[in-house]
Structure formats: C-alpha cells, structure tokens
Design brief:
Two copies of one chain form a homodimer. With 255 residues, chain A is of the alpha/beta class. Chain A is 23% helix and 29% strand. The first copy, chain A, has one domain (5-186, 218-253): Survival protein SurE-like phosphatase/nucleotidase (Stationary-phase Survival Protein Sure Homolog, Chain: A). Chains A and B meet through helix 2, helix 3, helix 4, strand 9 and strand 10 of A and helix 2, helix 3, helix 4, strand 9 and strand 10 of B.
C-alpha cells in the first residue's frame, strides 16, 4: 500500500516557523507536498484570485520533493494543488500551524481555516492548526504529541464528507496541556476600533484594531471555554451556512 | 419616529451599476449611507485588512449625504461604517446587487455575502443581493418589486440574531419571475481548471477557471433548484460553521 499523500499549506507564508514545524510532523505520516503563499495572507478568509493570475515558484524550505511558493491566497494554494499539481487527491490537507488563534468567529476571517475548509470541499480529510501565540519565538513543539494524535486519528477515521477540523492550541508548556476537547464554535464577535492617523500630507488613514468579545463565557462546550481551561480545542467544521431553523418563519414572512 | 438607517455596500466597487440600483431602491425605505470598495473585490470572501491601512474618500455616485469609497474589502467597509462612521447601528445592511450568482457554495467565496454576514454579526438585519447575470448590460430592475418586498419584510420582521439573507435572482424578465422561494444552500463544488500560459519571458503563469457542479440536482429545497425553476432564492445564512452532528463520533475517536 502506498503511503498517505499529505498536502500542507498555511496563511503566514511558506517560510514561517509554524508551517516548517507542521511539515516536519507530517513527514512521519506520509509523502508531503507543500504549496503555500509567498507572503503573509492573514485575514484573507476564503478569498480566491479571479481577476489576476497566479504563479508558482520552486522553493527549498521544507526538504520535500515538491514544494512551491504561490502568489495567491491559501485557498488558491489548495485549488492549485488538487487541480493542477497533484496526480491524485491528497489523503490529508493540513493548514498551519497558524501564528495566532482561529477559534470561535475567527474561523470566518482565517486564511488557515479557509484552506482546510477548501480541502474538505475537494473531498480530502483536512485539519487547520493554530497556536494561540503571535510571538516570533512561539514554541509549536509543546503540543506535538497531540498534533500527532489528531493527524493519526483522522488518517484512520475519516470525517463525513465536507467536514474538516479546526484545532486551536493554548499557549502552554507540554506538561500544562490538559488534553483534547471536541467542542463547538463559541458565539463571539470583534468590537473594532479604527485608529485614525494622519499621513505626512495631513490626510487621514485608519488601522483596524479590535477587542474579542465572547457572548457566552459561561458555556462549557465551546472552543473558547476549552482553550481557557488549558485544553486543545477541536471543532468539526463545515461550510453549509444555511440557518436551517429560520426557513419556516421566513417562508411565512415572505408569502 | 426616525426613518430606518440603511447602510449599503458591495464587492464590485462603489460605482458599479448593481449598487447604484440598490441604493436607488433603498432610498424609498430610509436614510441611506454608502461605504463601498474603490475597486472590484470579487472573490474576496471574508477578507479583512490587518497588515495594511485603510482610507476613505468622499464620492458622489449615489446622491446621498454620506458616501465614501474605501480602499479595503467589503467586510472592512461594514466594520468601518459600524465602528467609525455611523453614530448608531444601522437598521439594515444591504450588500450588492452583485453582478453574478452567489448561490450555493459561492457564499463562502463571495465578498457580497461576507459583507451581509458581517452586518448580521454586528447586530443589524442584513441582505446580500445577487443577480445571475455577469453582463455589463444586466437589468437589475426586472426583480425590483421582489427586492422591495424582501427589504420591506425584513424591516418589519427581524431575523434571529446573527442571521442574514442570501438572495439570488435569476436572469429573467419581470413577467417570467415566478416569485420567492425560501430554501437552503445546495451542496455543490467548483471543479477548477488552471489554464497555464507563458509570459513574454517564457515563464508560466495560471488563470483560475472552473466548472460549477451541483451535487444534488434532484433536491427541490435548494437555492439552485429554485433558481433553475425561475424563482428568486432566499437562503437564511449564519456563521456557525460547527458540524454539530460530528461532535459525538469525534469525541470517541479522539479519546
């Protein structure tokens, strides 16, 4: 039997420490191919490149046979891999490890998670990993045994079609990590403040800054709760955005 | 009682025919404020601008008191409106009318729908409108009475918190439109082909092209079905991506 084919991408760029660590872990489980953005693409959500062109350039950051930097978004990288570069569907799509949290509502802004969702849409098992630490010296290895456990489980037990995993890791030492909690996306929001500054020509410009607000801090089945208690949160994630419960009322209202 | 405050944005750019038509319709229902991208932002999904700055410039395309073009994405425009420009939460956020379909899986790639979802996240009623016609001569007025009906209904009957509407309009004459169908997002996918070309220096570059594949053409409760039968599709849409049904199995698998 051939080894699993594992495709790895991210949104922080192909040479960032998070993806370098993830590829190293992935190599234990199969043949690894990497296509990742040539520059940071944080906050790109599910963006794709349709009004412009894409390029691939061979790189050598990961010591695998096939690795390319791509001028596009994380989702472009997955589409490019599945539909152009690989000769078979990857058994597993891994995205990350993101430098910073993608829990709760962050999932919809996240390039990391959009790549995982796209992988699931294309019919592969898929996981997006994020470490809740923006620091340049973030230590991805503390959670290594849990990352291995999740990858290994997914290679054995496939999720339903179209479902991927959103895995967030709290910033803790290995011996402080309490384990894995499967949970749901917490209801939350960002309350933004736009910081206004003046450019050298006295014209205003704005920086987006924001404060994360958890609407349900008391619920004990959410990813935010799990992370706050020292667990690695695992949220099964899919892309049907239908608010099914609203269909009947709405049908009445629009009669 | 003061008039409803209606915020309008889109992803095709502030001067595109779709938003000009939508603002004209919206003016009948309240006080309109427009902030929309200064250039096309199709396929931007839920992207936000976090590694760069934003600018607003006063424009005069819509004949309303407050209108600005913004250098950011559709979601940036909503955040900017709610958190910087407006002194109260808009009663209604409208996005579009998009030039082209945002039904089914297109919802996750769509800047138009991401703006509507962001509006709902910020606590407003919100609707994304799309016309299934990419032509420069697309006629948005054919569906005017249905657009008015949906806006009017939403101003009267609020949706649940966090829910917005994804409205798609088939390319038909007014007397061919069969009415409104509330439905769910069809399961579908894009099968991409990357067209490879050579630049003048013989280096390859790629154009993303794709074919839409409906996985359930026989289901009669989806947006794709409604559109194919001549109905305007209305999908209540929210941003909890949790695959709730998977939580129990996954908990077992990751024990």
């Amino acid at each position: 039997m051939s080894k699993p084919l594992i495709f790895v991408t991210n949104d922080d760029g192909i040479s960032s420490p998070g993806i370098i660590f993830l590829v190293k872990v992935a190599k234990q489980f199969g043949d690894v191919v990497v296509i990742a953005p040539d520059k940071p693409q944080s906050g790109m959500g599910h963006a794709i490149t349709i009004n412009s062109t894409l390029r691939l350039n061979k790189t050598n950051y990961h010591g695998v046979e096939m690795e390319y930097s791509c001028t596009g978004t994380p989702v472009d990288c997955v589409k490019m891999a599945v539909n152009k570069i690989l000769d078979r569907r990857p058994d597993l799509v891994l995205s990350g490890i993101n430098h910073g949290s993608n829990s709760s509502i962050n999932v919809i802004y996240s390039g990391t998670m959009s790549a995982a969702i796209e992988g699931a849409l294309e019919g592969s098992s898929a996981i997006g990993f994020s470490l809740c630490d923006y620091g340049i010296d973030a230590d991805f290895s503390q959670a290594q045994k849990f990352i291995e456990k999740i990858i290994s489980s997914l290679l054995k037990n496939k999720l339903s079609k179209g479902v991927c995993l959103n895995v967030n890791i709290p910033k803790l030492k290995a011996d402080e990590l309490k384990g894995i909690k499967v949970c749901r996306q917490a209801k939350a929001n960002w309350v933004e403040e736009f910081e206004e500054r003046l450019d050298p020509y006295s014209r205003p410009y704005y920086w987006l800054t924001g404060k994360f607000v958890n609407f349900e801090p008391e619920s004990n089945d959410t990813d935010e709760w799990a992370l706050s208690k020292g667990y690695i949160s695992v949220v099964p994630t899919q892309c049907d955005l239908t608010a099914h419960k609203e269909i009947d009322t709405l049908t009445q209202n629009l009669k």
